[in-house]
């Protein structure tokens, strides 16, 4: 599996990938986390321009996408609970997979942790697959944060 920065030409595939992820979450009892077409094409364009959107591909087929932001995340400044440390960190956001290959979150976490050994992430309380994926990959639940629209998310942290 090769992980690379997404490029603007990937947008049609990425829009379909995220639409599939929304359908998957709704089918698994989590219809509200990415409602309203989240992430929008505008958001993905901004992520690509910022160099923080990545794709997992094999033989030019994209199987997954995610955002890795190195540096402070404004939504993580307030937590009900406590982070494991206050060291510089990276944040995983918008992890999505086509579902065609198992273990994509594991691949993403391995790659991101090699880049930044202090990772944070969050997910909706109804997103059981992501909760299990975080825990399977050594993340610990640290509390609750609130995203931009004011809704709560379960906060996770993995350190070396």
Account of the protein in words:
The two termini are 24 Å apart. The mean pLDDT is 96. The chain is globular, with a radius of gyration of 15 Å. It is 29% helix and 32% strand. It has helices spanning 11-27, 41-49, 104-115, 128-136, and strands at residues 2-5, 53-58, 61-70, 80-81, 90-97, 118-123, 140-146, 152-159. The protein is of the alpha+beta class and 160 residues long. A hairpin with a 2-residue loop joins strand 2 and strand 3 (61-70). It is built from four helices and eight strands. Strands 1-2-3-5-6-8-7-4 form an eight-stranded mixed β-sheet.
Largest sheet composition: 8 strands, mixed
From the N-terminal CA to the C-terminal CA, the straight-line distance is 24 Å
Strand content: 25-35%
Compute the number of helices.
Answer: 4
CA-based gyration radius? 15 Å
| Fraction of residues in H or I helices | 25-40%
The total beta strand count reads 8
| Multimeric status of the protein | single chain
Uncertain parts: none
- List SSEs in N-to-C order: EHHEEEEHEHEE
What's the mean pLDDT score?
96
Strand order of the largest sheet: 1-2-3-5-6-8-7-4
Structural class: alpha+beta
């Amino acid at each position: 599996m090769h992980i690379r920065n997404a490029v603007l030409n990937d947008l049609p595939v990425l829009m379909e990938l995220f639409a599939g992820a929304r359908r998957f979450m709704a089918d698994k009892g989590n219809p509200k986390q990415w409602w309203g077409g989240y992430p929008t094409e505008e958001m993905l364009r901004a992520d690509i321009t910022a160099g923080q959107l990545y794709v997992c591909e094999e033989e030019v087929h994209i199987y997954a996408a995610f955002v890795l932001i190195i540096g402070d995340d404004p939504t993580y400044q307030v937590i009900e609970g406590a982070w494991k440390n206050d060291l510089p960190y990276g944040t995983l956001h918008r992890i999505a997979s086509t579902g065609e290959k198992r273990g994509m979150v594991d691949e993403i976490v391995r790659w991101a942790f090699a880049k930044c050994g202090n990772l944070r992430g969050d997910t909706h309380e109804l997103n059981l697959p992501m909760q299990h994926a975080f825990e399977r990959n050594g993340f610990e639940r640290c509390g609750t944060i609130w995203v931009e629209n004011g809704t709560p998310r379960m906060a996770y942290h993995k350190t070396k």
